[in-house]
Specification:
single chain; alpha+beta; 2 domains; 8-stranded antiparallel sheet; 7-stranded antiparallel sheet; 14 helices; 26% strand; globular
Length: 426
């Protein structure tokens, strides 16, 4: 059994995490079983399955899953494995098809998971219940276009999302005509999946690690990285990082008079009419990131670029990444191009920001493989609070929050992480 006291120590003043949380195989196996198989894993967006018979392949923990859109426009999920001999059924990442045929013995299934073709059907009795041979289904849920799947969920999707729904609402409700995702840019880094979830909310590193990115941004059209540095350094009460019930965590940054992308999408007046005065003004002023446990990351407008990150753990020291840009469907093409270029600048195949992050995350993982000092995540504990009026006016309800440069969010995450890997349910 894993002893959590060997991984997390909290003496009331100091909060320590053992770097072995990133490297131990037994920890990773428990995470797969108790987090990635029991919680709701993000697998895609409805705009990727826009037409009947569209499909994509994703992973839910250790399972490869096939996500399909039937002719009834219902989204379904199945273990991507032929029920005869266990061969991988669908061998491409996405496409459009009514049927899936195994290359081994030719068993064929429709996109509702039903077996519809068995060579030498006479090998089974005439009265054999062939429905026993259908694909194994996984649970699928959709919230405002975001598709999630679970092998053995401990609760419903909306209960799992909890207060994180507010961040998805802000993303979707800002575009009354709906959003679409474009991508992915796909890569892998030699580090643990938790590192990118944590790094995304860590504004503390931005002025240091990404200093060259911000400097270059002053010389090109998109200036979002530069304004991120400016926002991270100011003392506005709207600059905050915290955690939500369920282990999700976030930051908000005050970008008053610094927004360039959001005004291309919607005006402040339109936001107020759509969201109400308090939320509309908050949305106009603040940009945000949120990491939704276990594998969805959302980056807002004017925070490099509006981005969806799908995080897939492969091993303790290997994580697959798929990043997409999200755009309002009805946004004029020229404005879409501006946002796409900003996305490519930071997160594209030769984007500068992701390369910085990947280097540090791989180094942390490599360092954690050997015994050494524990990570001290105490920063900001003395100023962590359970309420902050500015965020509450924006409709964000949280368990703990403090300055955006603090470790509060990651302490909250590891409290919930420990709860899940120890087998608890909330």
């Amino acid at each position: 059994m894993i002893g959590l006291e060997d991984l997390i120590r909290d003496d009331g003043n100091n909060f320590y995490v053992n770097p072995a949380v990133y490297t131990r195989e037994d920890v990773f196996d428990l995470e797969m079983d108790r987090i990635f198989h029991r919680l709701w894993v993000y697998v895609g967006h409805e705009s990727e399955l826009s037409e009947p018979n569209d499909f994509k392949v994703a992973r839910v923990g250790k399972y490869q899953v096939l996500i399909t859109m039937g002719e009834d426009r219902r989204v379904r999920g199945f273990v991507n494995r032929c029920t005869h001999r266990g061969n991988v059924l669908c061998r491409v990442s996405r496409g459009r098809s009514k049927f899936f045929r195994c290359i081994y013995h030719g068993w064929t299934f429709n996109n509702q998971g039903e077996v519809v073709g068995i060579p030498d059907r006479e090998g089974f009795p005439q009265d054999y219940d062939v429905s026993r041979l259908n694909l194994e289904e996984v649970k699928v849920g959709v919230y405002k276009g975001f598709i999630f799947a679970s092998v053995d969920p401990i609760n419903g999707l909306e209960e799992h999302l909890g207060e994180a729904k507010t961040f998805i609402d802000y993303i979707v409700d800002t575009s009354p005509g709906g959003i679409e995702v474009r991508g992915p840019v796909r890569y892998a880094y030699p580090g643990n999946w938790k590192l990118v979830m944590e790094n995304t909310i860590d504004t503390y590193h931005f002025p240091v690690l990404h200093a060259s990115v911000a400097m270059l941004a002053n010389y090109i059209n998109n200036r979002s990285p530069a304004t991120t540095v400016a926002a991270a350094k100011n003392s506005s009460a709207y600059n905050a990082a915290g955690y939500l019930r369920g282990g999700h965590f976030f930051f908000t940054l005050d970008k008053k008079d610094m927004r360039t992308q959001l005004p291309m999408v919607i005006s402040e007046g339109e936001l107020v009419r759509a969201l109400g005065k308090a939320k509309g003004e908050f949305r106009w002023r603040c940009t945000m990131h949120v990491s939704i446990l276990p594998n969805l990351i959302l980056l807002d407008y004017d925070e490099s670029a509006p981005t969806v990150r799908l995080v897939t753990p492969i091993r303790p020291d290997l994580t697959d990444m798929q990043t997409y840009v999200f755009l309002p469907k009805d946004l004029p093409l020229e404005r879409k191009r501006i946002i796409l270029r900003a996305y490519e600048e930071f997160s594209g195949p030769v984007g500068m920001g992701s390369a910085d992050d990947n280097e540090v995350m791989s180094c942390i993982n490599a360092s954690g493989a050997s015994p050494g000092p524990w990570m001290n995540l105490t920063k900001g504990r003395h100023r962590e609070v359970g309420r902050l009026g500015e965020l509450e006016e924006g409709g964000i309800r949280f368990e703990g929050v403090s300055n955006a440069l603090d470790d509060t969010f990651v302490r909250g995450f590891y409290r919930w992480w420990a709860h899940y890997v120890s087998g608890g349910v909330k």
